[in-house]
Design a protein that fits this description.
Layout (H helix, E strand, L loop, with lengths): L3 E7 L5 H12 L6 E6 L1 H12 L5 H8 L12 E3 L14 H20 L3 E6 L5 H14 L5 E7 L18 E3 L5 E3 L5 E5 L11 H5 L4 H12 L5 E4 L4 E4 L2 E4 L2 H15 L10 H12 L7 H9 L5 H21 L8 E6 L2 E6 L6 E3 L1
Parallel strand pairs: 1-2, 1-4, 2-3, 4-5, 9-14
Antiparallel strand pairs: 5-8, 6-7, 9-10, 10-11, 12-13
Helix pairs in contact: 4-5, 8-9, 8-11
Length: 361
């Protein structure tokens, strides 16, 4: 089944951005099947008058000029921002108005991106600057690989002219604010497609599906994409929790990680293991989870009778431990890895977390 192309615009008192964007999309052979406009009550009145008037509506003029039937757009397509009481927003003038607009735009983009039957193209060219930012930000959170974001570009002498709506196929005379006569067939209108970071793949259904306020959505997304750093050891489970992500570890890896976490919590610097005291510190961590008569403990104790073997032991198990952390955390793994520093006389190792980021259960 062919997916429907939907153009979403935000507008204020210049609904020209709708027909300008349509023209630019026509030039790219990417015309939408449907148009949705988000605006204020005042903006809707202007859009209905300028675009959809039965006699002089510029949307109808555009479709007729280029023989483009079949684009779904009528008065019901122009959606007025409402507050949490359902009242229509006349304009965006106060911090509360801006907050209401943010919630409305965020949730409308969320709904559209939940629909697998459509491909969404968002234009941030119209409306107040905050509206453009909000709709672009919402698409960055919810947008899918196929969705697009753009800004329409208009040649300077036509930009902002209340009588200009699109480059006409034939000569059309309008007057500039300075009184200069202009021919709309000479106008340039193009589309600047804007790359954006798609955060969707890193978010849970709590953010993607639940109707939340703008602030709640951003806060949840922030915690999921870049959660607070916190490393928690749970001995009874042989598990560590890295920013709430549970990782089960083999006993030796748990003990090794515990040792480096202890050093980090005490503010000790990088270490090049190899002293008898280092061996004793590591074995004391292993004793937390393994009795001295346990086979695992005995094998490690035998291996480390010579403290010089501790360095190669740490290097081998650090590699395996870090691999497991990377598999669990992906791009968020770096702060939780046992890192190395290449300072003479050799490579030293450390965990780059602070005491308040580490918890021993």
């Amino acid at each position: 089944m062919t997916r429907k192309r939907v153009l979403l615009c935000v507008t204020g008192m210049t609904p020209q951005v709708v027909t300008e964007t349509l023209f630019a999309l026509k030039e790219k052979s990417e015309l939408p099947n449907e148009i949705i406009v988000i605006t204020t009550a005042r903006g809707k009145n202007r859009a209905v008058r300028d675009l959809l008037d039965a006699k002089e509506g510029r949307f109808w003029e555009f479709c007729n000029a280029f023989n483009l039937p079949g684009i779904s757009f009528d008065e019901s397509s122009i959606e007025v921002i409402t507050n949490n009481k359902g009242d229509l927003l006349e304009d965006i003038r106060s911090p509360q108005d801006n907050s209401d607009a943010a919630d409305f735009i965020m949730n409308r983009v969320r709904e559209l991106c939940q629909n697998d039957d459509i491909i969404l193209h968002v234009s941030l060219a119209g409306g107040r600057k905050s509206m453009g930012f909000l709709v672009g930000y919402a698409l960055s959170i919810f947008g899918r690989e196929e969705d697009k974001l753009s800004h329409v570009l208009v040649s300077e002498e036509f930009e902002g002219n209340r009588d200009f709506f699109f480059p006409s196929p034939n000569k059309r005379r309008i007057i500039s604010p300075t009184g200069k006569e202009l021919d709309t067939s000479n106008a340039f209108v193009g589309l600047a497609e804007i790359p954006f970071i798609r955060l969707r793949t890193g978010l849970t259904s709590d953010v993607l599906q639940n109707r939340l306020s703008f602030g709640e959505t951003v806060s949840l997304a922030q915690k999921e994409v870049a959660p607070d750093r916190k490393l928690v050891f749970v001995k009874s489970e042989l598990a560590v929790y890295c920013s709430n992500q549970k990782i089960i570890l083999p006993p030796v890896h748990f003990a090794l990680y515990y040792w480096f976490a202890q050093r980090a919590a005490e503010g000790l610097g990088p270490i090049r293991p190899g002293q008898k005291s280092d061996v004793m510190q590591f074995l004391s961590c292993l004793k937390l989870i393994k009795e001295e008569d346990d086979g695992d403990y005995g094998r490690v104790h035998k291996t480390l009778r010579n403290p010089e073997y501790l360095l190669s032991f740490v290097q081998e198990h650090r590699t395996r431990l870090n691999k497991k952390i990377k598999e669990a955390l992906g791009v968020r793994a770096d702060p939780y890895l046992i890192s190395s520093t290449r300072k003479k006389p050799g490579c030293s190792y450390f965990l780059e977390l602070t005491a308040d980021q580490i918890e021993f259960s």
